[in-house]
């Protein structure tokens, strides 16, 4: 068994070792927009609008990326952290902590409650994102999606002055190297494998069911795509699944500076397009 684990680890190293592990800051993947030359215009456009964004820690990573673009372009997007929307009337981009990680239904309910505070303004965007930590290997994806979908469609019908968006769930990086190979030999799933499969089952439903109904920001699709346009994957029980490459990640779920830069550029481009 030791020999098998060693051989598997060596094979994993030979495969992953051939992949490029870092990229220059201007070589990021663009699902939306066309390049760095557009970033300032995206920020300028959003500064004249109103966006409400609910999130947890990965959202903070994304907003750190927005600050990178503000510094690079010299154009500021007026952002404020608050759950009291009446007190931030001058801010263009209001973000807030939504619910508690590990309780996805609670996040949906919290967002529904907070939407009622949004002033009756024209051309408002509101959305929230789940976290990878809201999913685990026993998550009932079908049940959660029905609950989420019903609530979002209810908001769409009730608040006709608000443009609601939907985001896919952020992806995870997964355990690699000899420890992951050894776990496979022993019939165990490396860290992140099962959790990632569940959240991508949920994401497939979002992309299919909301198509043509609400705009979808494919956060996970960005996170699993390398700057060269190829997808990072892992193999488990004969199937390939997407995951976040290590050079986007600061740990198994959060974004480093390069990952934050990549995702935030795409978010700015997506929002600017949706506000036209």
Keywords:
alpha/beta, Rossmann fold, disordered N terminus
Write the layout of secondary structure elements.
Layout: H1 2-16, H2 39-47, E1 50-55, H3 57-73, E2 79-81, E3 93-97, H4 104-115, E4 124-128, H5 141-158, E5 162-164, E6 166-167, H6 177-185, H7 193-209, E7 216-217, H8 219-223, E8 233-236, E9 239-242, H9 257-274
Parallel strand pairs: 1-3, 1-4, 2-3, 4-5, 6-7
Antiparallel strand pairs: 8-9
Helix pairs in contact: 1-6, 2-9, 3-9, 4-5, 5-7
Explain the overall architecture.
With 276 residues, the chain is α/β, with parallel strands linked by helices. The chain has one domain (2-274): 3-Layer(aba) Sandwich (Rossmann fold), CATH 3.40.50. It is 43% helix and 12% strand. It contains nine helices and nine strands. The strands form three sheets. A five-stranded parallel sheet has the order 2-3-1-4-5, with helices on both faces. Strands 6-7 form a two-stranded parallel sheet. Strands 8-9 form a two-stranded antiparallel ribbon. A hairpin with a 2-residue loop joins β8 and β9 (239-242). α3 (57-73) packs across α9, α4 (104-115) runs parallel beside α5 (141-158) and α5 runs parallel beside α7 (193-209). 39% of the residues are buried. Residues 1-18 have low confidence and may be disordered.
The CATH H-level homologous superfamily: SGNH hydrolase
The CATH topology label is Rossmann fold
Helix content: 40-55%
Instruction: Strand order, main sheet: write it out.
Output: 2-3-1-4-5
Task: Tell me which oligomeric state these chains represent.
Answer: single chain
What class, by secondary structure content? alpha/beta
Tally of individual domains = 1
CATH architecture heading? 3-Layer(aba) Sandwich
- How far do the termini sit from each other? 60 Å
Give the H and E element order: HHEHEEHEHEEHHEHEEH
Strand content bin: 5-15%
What best-fitting shape do the alpha-carbon axes yield? globular
């Amino acid at each position: 068994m030791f020999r098998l684990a060693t051989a598997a680890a060596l094979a994993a190293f030979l495969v992953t070792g051939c992949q490029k592990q870092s990229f220059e800051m201007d070589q990021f993947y663009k699902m939306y927009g066309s390049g760095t030359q557009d970033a300032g215009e995206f920020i300028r456009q959003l500064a004249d609008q109103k966006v409400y964004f609910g999130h947890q820690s990965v959202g903070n990573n994304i907003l750190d990326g927005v600050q990178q673009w503000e510094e690079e372009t010299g154009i500021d997007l007026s952002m404020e952290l608050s759950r009291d929307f009446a007190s931030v009337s001058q801010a263009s981009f209001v973000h807030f902590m939504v619910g508690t990680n590990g309780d996805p239904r609670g996040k949906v309910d919290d967002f529904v409650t907070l939407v009622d505070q949004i002033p009756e303004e024209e051309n408002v965007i509101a959305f929230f994102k789940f976290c990878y930590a809201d999913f685990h290997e026993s998550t009932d994806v079908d049940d959660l999606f029905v609950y989420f979908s019903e609530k979002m469609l209810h908001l769409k019908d009730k608040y006709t002055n608000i443009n609601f968006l939907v985001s896919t769930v952020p992806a995870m990086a997964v355990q690699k190297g000899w420890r992951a190979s050894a776990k496979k030999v022993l019939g165990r799933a490396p860290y992140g494998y099962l959790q990632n499969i569940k959240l991508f089952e949920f994401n497939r439903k979002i992309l299919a069911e909301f198509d043509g109904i609400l705009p979808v920001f494919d956060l996970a699709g960005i996170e699993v795509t390398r700057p060269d346009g190829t997808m990072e994957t892992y193999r488990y029980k004969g199937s390939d699944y997407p995951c976040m490459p290590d050079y986007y990640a600061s740990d198994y779920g959060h974004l480093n500076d390069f990952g934050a830069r990549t995702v935030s550029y795409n978010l700015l481009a997506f929002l600017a397009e949706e506000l036209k």
